[in-house]
């Protein structure tokens, strides 16, 4: 899948992942109304509205991008109905040949991490057959529990040729509270970065590892340093746009081959129609606004790259 | 809920939480067979078997203990069907007046942590009404993203009078890789412990905080130190029994008032019938074996306490 991700990035010339992180207040009134009429103004109706909204966006952008990143929390908040739509969204994206990065930030001790790996990347054996739970192509993983929390994901990833992005330096304002602490002559995120590079050797694709890293767009100097520490790790970069990350800051997250990073935008694309510069689309054409936002982001990254 | 947890611990004289972490190979053949006959040898049948197994154990132990801790990963590995049974288990335990600690180890940046908090502790507004997703009483939370990943859980916790246990020092062998790193004159877990104490002040019950900590039974010296750093935090202690934690090591996780800690056992209780000393029960009486294992654990902790 890492080879496929790279191939799709090269073909689309768009190192972009669209974050499918729907909030009810992003969804146009008309869609909400119809979903509530059909399924009730309840968890099922809300989940249905999210599904219709997602489908509109996916249909409008799938030919432009290599991958999507649904944030499972946004579905989990609606309980089982939300998770049903999380799965429906994954399946639909895969039908459209999009790679799916499940932003699940799971991580636990050995046998429990193995259960998460089984449910999200692998398959579970029941009697004589095997079944898949959520079946993402990649997931995000939290490293706080150390190697024995990570290795089960790598084990299942190797069997399935699937991958993961491990949190190294996150994009939020307080990420430094623990991640920036000095540990000897390094910061904690550097130490985690070195481990990501080490774990990455265990599960290599052709040129990059299946074990990537999450490094927020909001800390460009850190991105530059981590790029050197983990030369073979793909970096998933959240924080572009709404959170303040700028394209010119992101060029150093890439390697000289123009590869090695994929930039996420969520709100900036899926709720583009609500933003400055996209007023002309209006709520009914929210998906066209999302398409335009992807094209604009692609251009923005290309321009930044050309001035590198 | 923290006051209720303490009241129930005092009444039951059992600072014990039973980890409902079912694996298919714990489940007696007869239950598996019947569930597969009724629902099919597939994800639905497996989930049904887990439900029947859980129900047997809950019915056998609910009057002895204050709380249960279902590990969501063990359900999530069966996809949506598994999560349906996770929810069914929560609802049934609450009917039995057990407190439910969802071992979900979630944690993300602001709005995403808020979505997790909403789905697991709070309620989501849909049109004019509010709905609950999973509705645990407490959850476990991962601190790697810092304060803005934690505060949303506290915010929702305050509204709902619900709580959380934040990972400080986990019970697994490699927990030290990051958690033990020296940060100035402290280790990282101490630093996280100090933050837990600080966050705890924001959401206090009568004598203890709604913000507790996870500290593994396998590192007793660390438990002793963290007990001092976080005097008002309830400590959830995994790692007793199967993972090697001994009762005499655990007494220092408690305060002098005999409160302040609750010890988890999962496999040692739910799969007791498979263990040495419980052979006489046999697979059909797995639930009676679990009841005996709870009684034995209660005695073990009491004896250890008396030699403190």
- Count of β-strands of chain A: 12
CATH topology name of chain A, in short, is TIM Barrel
| Overall SS class of chain A | alpha/beta
Overall average residue pLDDT of chain A: 96
| CATH architecture descriptor of chain A | Alpha-Beta Barrel
How are strands sequenced across the largest beta sheet of chain A? 1-2-3-6-7-10-11-12
> Helicity level of chain A, as a percent range?
40-55%
State the major sheet of chain A: 8 strands, parallel, barrel
Strand-and-helix sequence of chain A, N→C?
HEHHEHHEHEEEHEHEEHEHEHEHH
- Chain oligomer state: homodimer
Rg from Cα of chain A:
19 Å
Largest interface: A-B, 71 and 71 residues
Ends apart, CA distance between termini of chain A:
29 Å
Q: Low-confidence spans of chain A: pLDDT under 50, at least 5 residues? A: none
How would you sum up the global shape of chain A?
A: globular
Give structural attributes.
47% helix, 308 residues, 8-stranded parallel barrel, alpha/beta, homodimer, two-stranded antiparallel sheet
Task: Give the gist of this structure.
Chain A has 308 residues and is α/β, with parallel strands linked by helices. The first copy, chain A, has 13 helices and 12 strands. Chain A has a single domain (2-264), classed as Aldolase class I (TIM Barrel, Alpha-Beta Barrel), CATH 3.20.20.
